[in-house]
Amino acid sequence: MSTRSTAPVSFDALPNPRGGAVRPAELALAEATLAFEQRRETGAALLRASHALRTAGWLSAQRFADALVRLSPLASGEPGEAEGARPVFGAALGDFRAALERHNLRELCCSPALFNHYSALCAQLAEHMSGSTVAFEDLALCSRPVPPTSLHAQSADQLAHLRARYERALLPVLRSQAGTGSAVALAVTNAALDELDTVFAELAGPDPYDFWRLARACAKALRTGGHALRETDARRFYARCNLALADHARGIERAPRSLVRATLALLWRDYALFGAAAEDAEQVELLHDYGLTVDWHVAGSQPSEMLWEAGARDAQSSGGGLSTLTRDLGVLTVNAHAYEDFLQTADASIEALAAHARAANQPEKADPSEALQAGDAAYRLGAAACALGLGHVALLADALGLAWRRRAHAGVSTPAVRAHVIVSAPAADTLEQAAEALRATLHKVAAGVGPAAASHTQAALAALTHAIEQGSA
């Protein structure tokens, strides 16, 4: 993974100068900002922003906007009325407005800075009305299907031995403090993390959707990004894995859905924000197994990343970004050249998906490699739609890619692996209907129609989600 820039900004990822913009939302947030500074009502403008973001399919951003809407009456009140809400609201509104103008959908999903604001907003709401606990995955995986994961059966003695090793190694990790302690203490903590990684590897079973396989990948990502000893979410991950190991020892066959979602979101975070390098190929393949895509980047230095950011800003200000020739697709304004490029690549992907779906109706010709190719075609389409800002298209394409991955893994020829696949392959007609829904949506996009989720798109996503998540805990 590339390193984070040291540029003095509060965001986490690179801007997307060719990405689409939801101008009605940007204008509404500007209006809300002015109203907030003048202590006037902000709710109506924020509601317009939320509606525009929902129409565009920027669903994580819509969830953030909805939190602003709920807190706006408290933050815009008279001095002395819930005054603690005002600075929290103002900081969140300012950073959210700036992030939205960077046109990077993955950042809007996975930014720790935005999530910290979101948590603070919800904490303020909880002080004045009933609320629920929020988690990072609530934003990162908003509306995405997540498949269930298995806990591979092992002997009671083996599990007891592994749990004892895990608990011994867990204690120094939970007690450690990043950046403090002696070199000896740091060495002890790193040795403990090594032991946890080893236990994850020994726990992993043959199922591609084995939870410990996912946990091992998450632990690797946390250590690579320098988060393992620094973040509360990382410590919580290690502690919750200990509870999952206790469940495993009691014979429970599936990991808790909430833990799977949290683990997947932590694994995806840095790859979504910074992209992946060649050495991350195994991690990216696992993310594909769970319906998530990333951009590929050559891991660069901090100076090179800062140059990229400067170039992106120059491109936008000098006419290389949305200030040049644009197309309006309902609430979404896109760069005309990026739009034409997307239509060309999307056409090839949708033809491949339709062909694979037709072939899937012939069981005698079922081939896991063909299913993997179909999944890759869907992911190419999803990644391209994400880059352009077509949120609904990206979400449906990624879900279809995940469904094809599930079908590929369900069709493997190794009996030891096939016996542990815990969800049957999605039906061929479900895959075909989703491909046709994508085709119909892309025809509308090509005709310049807005990106709002149509009923057939929502129905296709619901059917895919059911096929992917059926039987989940």
Question: Would you mind describing this structure in some detail?
Answer:
This protein is mainly alpha-helical and 473 residues long. It has three domains: 21-140, no CATH class; 156-289, no CATH class; 325-469, Four Helix Bundle (Hemerythrin (Met), subunit A) (Up-down Bundle), CATH 1.20.120.160. It contains 20 helices and three strands. It has helices at 23-37, 43-56, 59-75, 85-100, 105-110, 112-128, 136-140, 156-175, 183-203, 211-224, 232-249, 257-274, 281-289, 302-318, 336-360, 368-388, 391-410, 415-418, 428-446, 455-469, and strands at residues 21-22, 326-329, 332-335. A three-stranded antiparallel beta sheet has the order 1-3-2. Strand 2 and strand 3 (332-335) form a beta hairpin. Helix 4 runs antiparallel to helix 6, helix 10 packs parallel to helix 12 and helix 17 (391-410) packs antiparallel against helix 19. It is globular, with a radius of gyration of 23 Å.
What descriptive keywords fit this protein?
473 residues, mainly alpha, Four Helix Bundle (Hemerythrin (Met), subunit A), 3 domains, three-stranded antiparallel beta sheet, 20 helices, 3 strands
What is the CATH topology of the largest domain? Answer: Four Helix Bundle (Hemerythrin (Met), subunit A)
Number of helices: 20
Rg (CA only): 23 Å
Note the overall shape. Answer: globular
Strand segment count: 3
**Strand arrangement, largest sheet?**
1-3-2
Give the CATH level 1 class of the largest domain: Mainly Alpha
Low-confidence stretches: 1-10
Mean pLDDT: 86
Overall CATH architecture of the largest domain: Up-down Bundle
- How many individual domains? 3
